[in-house]
Specification:
Largest sheet: none
Shape: elongated
Helix content: over 70%
C-alpha cells in the first residue's frame, strides 16, 4: 500500500509541474529551429534531427522548419540524414507532414 501512495504522490508532483510550465520546451524548439535554418551541413544536423525524433516534440514551428529544410536539401539528400529528417518530421504529427513527404518523393524521382 505504501508503494501505491508513493506513486500517487509522485504523479501529483509531475502533474503540478506540468501545470506550472516546467515542461515548456520553447527554448529547445528555438534552438532546433535556428539550427535547421542555419548553413549547417546535413552531417552536422544528424545529431539534432535524431534528438528531435526521439524527443517527440510536436511543435508546428519546428515541423515547418524540418519540412522547409528537407525540401531545400532534396537535390543532394544524403541517405542517413534523409531517413532521420523523415522520421523527425513524421514524429511531430504535423498535418502537412504527409504532403511534404509526398513532395520529397516526387522531387527525388525527377
Amino acid at each position: 500500500m505504501k508503494i501505491v501512495n508513493v506513486l500517487v504522490l509522485l504523479m501529483s508532483f509531475n502533474i503540478a509541474n506540468a501545470m506550472d510550465g516546467v515542461f515548456d520546451r520553447s527554448a529547445e524548439v528555438d534552438q532546433y529551429v535556428a539550427q535547421l535554418n542555419s548553413t549547417a551541413t546535413q552531417e552536422e544536423l544528424i545529431p539534432s534531427v535524431r534528438a528531435i525524433h526521439i524527443s517527440g516534440i510536436g511543435d508546428e514551428r519546428l515541423a515547418k522548419a524540418l519540412a522547409d529544410r528537407l525540401l531545400r536539401d532534396v537535390p543532394n539528400l544524403e541517405k542517413q540524414y534523409g531517413a532521420w529528417m523523415v522520421r523527425a518530421l513524421a514524429s511531430t504529427g504535423a498535418p502537412f507532414a504527409k504532403d511534404t513527404l509526398g513532395r520529397v518523393v516526387k522531387l527525388r524521382d525527377v
